[in-house]
Every structure is written in C-alpha cells, then in structure tokens.
Amino acid sequence: MPSKTSLESKTLSLLKECQDGNHIYVGYSGGMDSHVLLNTVALCRENLTKEVIAVHVNHGLNEKACQWAEHCQVTCDALKIKFIQVDLNAVAPKGESQEEWARDLRYHAFMELLGPNDIILTAHHKDDLAETLLLQLLRGAGPAGLSAMPDKIQFGIGWHVRPFLGINRKEIVQYARELGLDWITDDSNDDERFDRNYLRHNIIPALKHRWPGMLKTFSRVARIQSGVNELIEDLAAQDLSSCLYIENNTLSAQSLGELTNTRAINVIRFWLKTRQHRSPGAKILEQILTDVVNSEPDASPCISWAGIQIRRYRDMIFLTHDLPATKQHHKKINWDTCDECLLDFGILRAELNTGKGLSHKKIKGKDVNVRFRDGNEKIKLGGHHHSLKNVFQENGIPPCFRELIPLIYIDDTLVEIAGLCINNDFIAGPDEKSLLISWDRANEVYAMRDQSDRGTGF
To answer: CATH topology for 223-321?
Structure first.
C-alpha cells in the first residue's frame, strides 16, 4: 500500500509543476477514489499557495443524487474545504453513449470553472487507465485515444492533473480502509450494461490473472502512444498554419484539398481540439472531408454531431453550435426598446447614445419592430437601395445565419440590419442624440464572414 507521505509527495509535486493560477479544484463525486484524493489534498494543503475547492457534479441520473451531494457537503465542511455543487441534466440524447455524454458534460462544467492556470484534480488511477485504453481500442481509436490519460495536460485555460495514475485500485481501497474513510457507493458501478463496468468486472480480472503485470504494460503503451500522438499533432500544427484563416479561425477548403486525405483529417481533428471540442469518430471525420471540404463552393453542406455543426461557405470551413430552426419569415416582434428583446437566437438591447446608431429624432414616437428575412427586403446604403440578399452576399455572410439575423424596422421601413449596417436615412449625426442597438450574437455571426473576395461591406 502506498504511504500517506508518498501520496502527498506525488500530488504536491504535480501541483507545483503548474505555476500561477489561484485555485485547485478537486473533482469530488463522493466515491472512494475521489475521497482519497480530497483527503490527500487536504493533508498537503499547508504547502499549497492556491485555494482548494471541491466540485461535486450532480448529473441528475440517480435517485440518490441529492443524498450524495449532502454527504459531499458534510465531508467538505469537516475538512474545512470550500464546496461547489454543479447540477446537470446529463440524460443522453437518443443514439449517444450515456457514459460519454455525462463525461463530456462533466468535463465541460469543470472547464467553465477554471481561470487562467487554475487546476482541476481527478482521481484516475492505473485501473482507470487500463479500462480507458481497452475501451478506446475497442472503439477503433488512434494514438490520441490510446494515449488515454496523461498525469498532467492543458485543459482549456487551466490544467487537468491526475496524481494517482501510478497507483492501482487495490492500493487505493487498502488506503481508504486504513484511514477509515466514509465514501459513497454508486450501485450503477455494478451495472454491466455499461461498457466500462463490463470490462471492470469481467475482462480486466481475467487479463490480470493471465498477465499479472498488465497494468504496468498498459501504462507503458499509453506513454508510447502519447509520444506518437505528440508527433502527429506537431505535423497537424504545421499543416494547420497553411490552412487557417487567422481572422476568424476557420479553415480553407482549397488548402485542405491540397493535402492527402490522412493529413487533411488530421488537421480537422487538431483544429477541433484547439477550439476545445471533442473530435468525432473516424466515420464523421471522413464525412466532413467528403461532404463538406470536397463539396462544390456554392453548396452549403452541414455535418452535425453532439451539438456541433461543421459547415462550408465558399472556401471557408467553419464551426457552429446547433442553430435554431429558421422558420421565422413572417414573424414580427413589437419591441419596446426600454426592454431587452428575446429572440430565438440571441438578445437585442438598445441604449441612448450620442452620434452612434439610429437618429433619435427620426424614430421618436414611431413603432419599432423586429422581423426576419423573407426574401423581399431592401435597405438604403451608399445612397442606393440594395436587396438584403446582395448585402449578405457582399458581406460574405454564410447562408445558415441569414434568416437568424434580426432586422430592425421603424413602422414598415428597414432601418438597420442588427450589428451590420444602418439605413442611410436614419444614421445619427456626429453630435445627435441616438439609439444604439446591440445584438449579443453579432460577433459570433459576423466573425464567420468569408475572408476572401468580399465587397466593401457598405
């Protein structure tokens, strides 16, 4: 069994490698592994300069979830450690793995908490690494998946640290019992419908019996694959530099098409990683290459998975979250500009200003309403009336956004395309009282404008 001192020493050593930051978050489910980790951090906290905070994620999947959260709160109170509870609805959509879905939501919640160079600790150990490596192998993963679990890795703007990767489950059980810890037992861990539980209870014990040193061997395999993956990502970073539109972090379809299929897929996978998104499986990556990258420039293809969409517009490959349905053609919203205007895609706000926005005297006492594109709109720009279609094309606005962009009307006159341009006849003078309208999705949408062959943008 590892000594208390060795656990503290390993944990403290890894934490000290992560400089700066203000917080150490401990992923605390209340189970045995995370309880040992929390105790270990508590024992060495006098040597730490960062605040220690326990994070309990309630996935909403078990009827005992509230009891578990209460247990975690009581434990943290006894240890004098700050406690945060994050509540999620982690029920997976049809067709998604419940294990992976809950894990992704949990990790996203952790990432949202981290400030620059903050640390999230999790209690993964040798057995977890072996289970993960086998799962990834059975799913057909490459070196990135088989590298499984490094003990320290960049995680968003912070770090993910796993100080127990050199320790196996049996040692942690012995350690927890010797300390007399009181932990939660999740009965779902015995449910062999879940792949990880099936491996844990049936396959891993048989492998250990036949090959007693398998945990050490699997750790070595993961380290080797980690090195291979590092070389692959070095190549991807070089290729990405020649395929990237730096202005909006999108990819050039033409540049990707000049690479071999293997290298192009490698770039897409790496690009998704730099955007903090989990890579899809090999089948979807191949679809992205075939149906999006290699599509005709005037097509508008889209590949969706796990709430993410990859699209093409002209030469630009870009990423969005799932967009709302665009069936708003005849929708008209009467807007009192003293209040926020809630839309299917974002929020409009208005404030009084001077010299920027809509002329206050020209709109005073008139009805302000919000509409959406139906194909017949015109707006006066540069002294001439232009169709909305031409305005969007000249400004390189991808089609997927065009019916989501709010159009501001005074009575029946289009006076502003939110966040993009204002009708010439309604622009406030330099010292004139004005109404300044902002749309909280404008930066997201207009950052995706095509970076090549664009007009003046009026």
So the answer is: Chorismate Mutase Domain, subunit A (1.20.59)
State pLDDT tens for residues 193-211.
888 899 999 999 999 999 9
Predicted confidence at residue 39, as pLDDT, reads 92
> Measured in whole angstroms, how far is the alpha carbon of residue 253 from the centre of its chain?
23
Give the residue among 280, 270, 265 at the shortest CA–CA distance from 249.
Answer: 270
pLDDT tens-digit profile of 432-450? Answer: 999 999 999 999 899 888 7
Give the separation between CA 157 and CA 159, rounded to whole angstroms: 7
Give exposure, 217-243, as e/b (b: 16+ Cβ within 10 Å): ebbebbeebbeebeebbeebeebbeeb
Q: How is domain 4-210 classified at the CATH fold level?
A: Rossmann fold (3.40.50)
Tokens, residue 267: 């770039």
- The answer to whether the Cα torsion of 444, 458, 364, 370 is positive or negative is negative
Does the reported pTM lie above 0.70?
A: yes
Q: State phi, psi for 90 to the nearest 5 degrees.
A: -100, 20
Cβ neighbours for 203, distance < 8 A, ≥ 6 positions apart: 134
For 398-434, write each residue's pLDDT tens digit: 999 999 999 999 999 999 999 999 999 999 999 999 9
Residue 53's nearest CA partner among 9, 119, 5 is 119
Q: What residue spans define the domains of the chain?
A: 4-210, 223-321, 332-446
